[in-house]
Amino acid sequence: MSSHILVSFILFFLSLPLIYLFSSKFLIITNFPFISSPDSDDNYLFRRAATTNPHTTATNPKPKIAFLFLTNSNLSFAPLWEKFFSDDNNRHLFNIYIHADPTSAVADPGGVFHHRFIPSKKTYRSSPTLISASRRLLANALLDDILNQYFALVSQHCIPLFSFRFVYKYLFKDNLTSLTNFSLSNSRYQSFIEILSNEPRIYERYLARGRDVMIPEVHFHQFRVGSQFFVLTRRHAKMVVRDTRLWRKFRLPCITAEQCYPEEHYFPTLLSMEDLAGCTGFMLTRVNWTGCWDGHPHRYEPEEVSPQLIRDLRESNQSSQLYLFARKFSPECLQPLMNIADDVIFRDM
């Protein structure tokens, strides 16, 4: 009898590695309605998002915009965004997802933002953690709703410059018919992401991880720079979460923090290499780099907020494009912005 017990114990301990292997692949942690993975690198989450299409029960489906909020503090401009989303006619045309630093006491702003937090991890400057957070947002939004056809990444310092109605029409233009063939995956749309190859000190940024470290996956002539905030199509969002080849390089730590801005390089480099024709090369978030310091853009203060500022921020030097969002605003700007929200910001053109 004792020999049988001994054999059972031996078999049990030998089976532990297999139990752990299969549990990590098939047992997921659910934080309804979003999906996370116990895998520390989120690999399972990304694989699911790249290969799985959720089903829709909508009888007359319309494309949606997924708004992805990347934040490490409270959403100070939640009341302004609440007003942006408030039109009842638009309530089925968007989804909201928030990646909040889990080590910060980020309050639930309530309203349309209530219960929109996804399982998240801490982010650090000069590290690939901001890329991971963005990919995590994209993956959750891909899995959550097949009707999400555009994915707009914004920060807690971003504000809208137009009404939701204007933004929706601007992105989808004349393609507002019902989506009945989801295999098309919005192939007629383009992503709005900045892709630049001739920025100052781009070579130093390329060498941030060490000489020749990026080769052979990314040669210098393929390396690009752009804003970390973008609006991607569904096919490009899937491209991002499916990628492992470039991610193996961009996830490596920098040897110097001075020129280490991986989130400004990974997305434009990947999309430039994979589908440059599918990108406009233009971003929809206006950033003022005048007087920038330590990698931070100009931060607008309350005394700068005015109707004219909003009009100026909308305008682009490209006649066919407009800016739909803007950053970076201090939290104290909320009230001055709310004062002009109805008459200026959401009055559109």
From TrEMBL:
| Coiled coil (residue ranges) | none
InterPro entries cross-referenced by the UniProt entry: BC10-like, Glyco_trans_14
Q: Which UniProt keywords apply?
A: Glycoprotein, Glycosyltransferase, Membrane, Transferase
A Pfam family this protein belongs to?
A: Branch
Q: Which domain of life is it from?
A: Eukaryota
Extract one GO molecular function annotation from the record. Answer: glycosyltransferase activity
Q: What is its main location?
A: membrane
One cellular component (GO) term of this entry: membrane
Q: How does it sit in the membrane?
A: Single-pass type II membrane protein
The listed locations are: Membrane
- The UniProt record lists the keyword Transferase: yes
Q: What is this protein called?
A: Putative glycosyl transferase, family 14
